[in-house]
Design brief:
Strand order of the largest sheet: 4-3-2-1-9-8-7-6-5
CATH class of the largest domain: Mainly Beta
Structural class: mainly beta
Order of helices and strands: HEEEEEEEEEEEEEEEEEEH
Number of domains: 2
Oligomer: single chain
Radius of gyration: 25 Å
Strand content: over 45%
Largest sheet: 9 strands, antiparallel
Distance between the termini: 116 Å
Helix content: under 10%
CATH architecture of the largest domain: Beta Barrel
Length: 251
């Protein structure tokens, strides 16, 4: 009997001496949405008094610094809430992972992995490339037939060269989306890919010789392709040069 009690006490002592999980740092997760998946970054800091503070980023929606109003850690159990987006989260921290659920108000699984990779939405300037500018097109999506746009989704991409390479922001005015950054813009010769998982797919196409048209497809995350042609919009300066002079007024 004494031996059993001693074993139990040693086991309890081992649990009590187990190191607490350190949640300070940057954590990256992917959140599924109705359109696609967006990356969520949780930034956690710990003060000298041990108190935790945090903010959230949704870089694929160009939103940074969402305030976290409360965050607590008890053992390995993490809880936090961001009132501005009406989100709360409960999870378990284990080494470099957090496994848990968003509650808004229904539970939605969400896991985070510790990361040291910074996701940029601002980039150093660089001379423009030969495809910098605004590109516009319309893709027909059967899944949107019952919407006011009747399945026609107007896409606008603003491509820009930067010190980090080609980038793009996206507008989908029918969905009240403006200025969302593409995850990647990849160009190999005349082939170009614009990755947009937050919109549920990517553009894959080829540039014509005049660099005025990208002909290709919108490829969904389910590997379904829909024809898409993007045409380069003329900038205001070029349009004004081509516009005919106004006729003189007659008295």
């Amino acid at each position: 009997m004494k031996k059993a009690i001693m074993v139990a006490m040693l086991a309890l002592a081992a649990v009590c001496k187990a190191p607490a999980q350190d949640v300070a740092g940057d954590w990256l997760g992917e959140l599924p949405t109705a359109m696609g998946s967006v990356r969520i970054v949780l930034h956690v800091t710990k003060g000298a008094d041990g108190a935790l503070k945090a903010t959230l980023d949704s870089p694929d929606q160009a939103v940074l610094g969402i305030p976290v109003d409360s965050i607590t850690m008890e053992g390995s159990k993490l809880k936090f809430a961001a009132n501005v987006v009406k989100w709360s989260y409960e999870g378990t921290v284990k080494n470099s992972s957090i496994n848990g659920n968003w509650i808004q108000p229904h539970k939605m699984p969400q896991d985070f992995k510790k990361t040291t990779t910074t996701i940029k939405i601002e980039h150093p300037s660089a001379p423009p490339s030969d495809i910098d500018g605004t590109w516009e097109g319309v893709v027909n999506l059967p899944s949107l037939q019952d919407t006011p746009s009747r399945g026609k989704l107007a896409l606008t991409f603003h491509i820009k060269n930067t010190g980090d390479g080609l980038t793009a922001t996206m507008d989908v005015l029918d969905q009240n989306i403006k200025g969302w950054p593409a995850v990647a813009v990849i160009r190999k010769g005349s082939s170009i890919t614009i990755e947009a998982p937050q919109l549920g797919g990517e553009v894959k196409g080829k540039l014509n010789k005049d660099l005025t048209v990208i002909s290709g497809d919108w490829k969904s995350e389910q590997d379904i392709t829909y024809a898409l042609t993007l045409r380069r919009a003329k900038d205001a300066a070029e349009t004004s040069k081509e516009a005919p002079a106004a006729a003189p007024a007659h008295n």
